[in-house]
Amino acid sequence: MSWLVFAALFWIGALALNIWLSRSRLVKSRGGRLLVPAIFGITILVVWEAVVRGLEVPGVILPPPSAIGARIATSLPVLWVDFLQTFVKGALSGYLIGCAAAVLVAVAIDRSPFLQRGLLPVGNFVAALPIVGIAPILVMWFGFDWHSKAAVVVVMVFFPVLVNTVAGLAASEPMQRDLMATYSANYWQTLVKLRLPAAMPFIFNGLKIASTLALIGAIVAEFFGSPIRGMGFRISTEVGRLGLDMVWAEIAVAALAGSAFYGVIALIERGVTFWHPSQRT
Amino acid sequence: MKSVLPILTVVAVIVALWYAAAVWMNAQWVYDQAARADTEVTLAEVIPQTLAQERPVLPAPHQVAAELWKSVVGQKVTSKRSLIYHGWITLSATLLGFAIGTGLGILLAVGIIHNRAMDLSVMPWAIASQTIPILAIAPMIIVVMNSVGLSGLLPKAVISAYLSFFPVVVGMVKGLRSPDAMQLDLLRTYNASRGETFWKLRLPASMPYLFASLKVGVAASLVGAIVGELPTGAVAGLGARLLSGSYYGQTVQIWAALFAAAIAAAALVGIIGAIQRVTLRRMGMAR
């Protein structure tokens, strides 16, 4: 009971603190902007822990954050092996292949308006489909190891990147293209010096969408069969053994990996598209 | 209408490539069978055989179409072999989850724009959560809800709701903030209250953003419902068809379920697109 009272008090206290912070002048600074969501996140963890203890929720339903943290600390090697298998081998290699292929195809069909008019609606259509469903087929074709996961990722990231790149290649203005023409630049010079740089904000938009899809694809593909390592494998087997603290540990790793992946791409974007209005502050 | 011909061309090319791939990938099996029976097969004999196998590596388009037709039209709707039966199970979870997720998402967005503390504390997490592979928690939700006695439709709907929730929150916050300062000032000169500003300016202005995120959300909901069916041990639903097909090597069944899912997704997105067109035209916002 005392845990529940503590949870309620902590919640009210943190809420009051956040309301005060959001009205104060601190919010204008960068530190204050980080502080408020951080307090919110810590509050959730504390309330979670206190409620689980107060109500004595069994660990097979919802383990407290402290148990998850302890599990992460004790099983770092397992988590690292899973991370390597799913993220580096499955998601990352598939992501690189898929995105490279999509950009190349986009440049190739860019020369033909006919192909663009035909491929874009098809690409948009496919991008909305539940592509994860091809996972069982690709697992059958490429075997249980990371190759099949990479293949799923390739298919999943291909269409969002393709559609965005084609839209980006059309983004340079006629005036700018005319300028290139007056310089007597040929097709490739125009492409490399004007149209690809102008397309970068769009391409990075696609790359960011694809970064989330890549991790989802790699994890879900492992539900259909995998060697005895990998995040999706660990999640599905530990759920079966009711080792929920391990499942939460894997989810924490997946969340960290996903955010870090996204963050890295956003950083690269800031470097590449420094000229774009959205990056100038 | 100008793009009908190019689209048809592209689709035709895809189908042709598919047939070529089917012949190429299934040929090995035919040659193996022939070698086992000590007979020689010519290429002209191989091709028809590759397109009519029981369990091909890659089924030909017409096999998938036949399987779809057989399991949609050829079965009673209540039969466990009917894709309509499985599709409806998945679709009902999708729609329930989508409704829950959208409702909660809009409510949270309204809270976020009216409360600065909520905006500052929740919004960064809502944006960050889009970079997280949320789908990974699907098996856990299913098993945990099963162990507290909830099974069937609801756990899948929870996953669907969770997946459609965040796109709606982010899109709706953007939309409710889209009226510019001049319009907000105008309402202030009318002495409009916050409620009136919300109903007469912010909500109507958010509609294009809402529909854009609804389209993303409904597609995510369907994926959530399908993945949610995987860990329940393949009982019913399109995800269960995929899983049982992959266990028993029934490739044609997998492809048929996949196409059923694709058709369902296209239909859902199409319906929302149609509602969007009608709504925006009635509101005078059609482009």
From TrEMBL, chain A:
Bilayer topology: Multi-pass membrane protein
Keywords: Cell membrane, Membrane, Transmembrane, Transmembrane helix, Transport
Subcellular location(s) per record: Cell membrane
Domain ABC transmembrane type-1 span(s) in chain numbering: 98-272
Membrane-spanning ranges: 34-52, 92-110, 122-144, 150-171, 202-226, 246-268
Cited InterPro entries: MetI-like, MetI-like_sf
Gene3D superfamilies (UniProt xref): MetI-like (1.10.3720.10)
Keyword Disulfide bond among UniProt keywords: no
A Pfam family per the record: BPD_transp_1
This protein's GO CC annotations: plasma membrane
Record-level GO BP terms: transmembrane transport
Protein name: ABC transporter permease
Organism encoding this protein: Cereibacter changlensis JA139
Taxonomic lineage of the native organism: Bacteria, Pseudomonadati, Pseudomonadota, Alphaproteobacteria, Rhodobacterales
Automatic annotation (TrEMBL), chain B:
A Pfam family per the record: BPD_transp_1
Keyword check for Transcription: no
Gene Ontology annotations for the cellular component aspect, listed alphabetically: plasma membrane
Transmembrane segment boundaries: 88-113, 125-145, 157-176, 209-232, 252-275
Residue span, ABC transmembrane type-1 domain: 83-276
Keywords on record: Cell membrane, Membrane, Transmembrane, Transmembrane helix, Transport
InterPro entries xrefs: MetI-like (IPR000515), MetI-like_sf (IPR035906)
Intracellular or extracellular location(s): Cell membrane
KW DNA-binding (keyword) present: no
UniProt family annotation: Belongs to the binding-protein-dependent transport system permease family.
Descriptive protein name: ABC transporter permease
Species name: Cereibacter changlensis JA139
High-level lineage: Bacteria, Pseudomonadati, Pseudomonadota, Alphaproteobacteria, Rhodobacterales
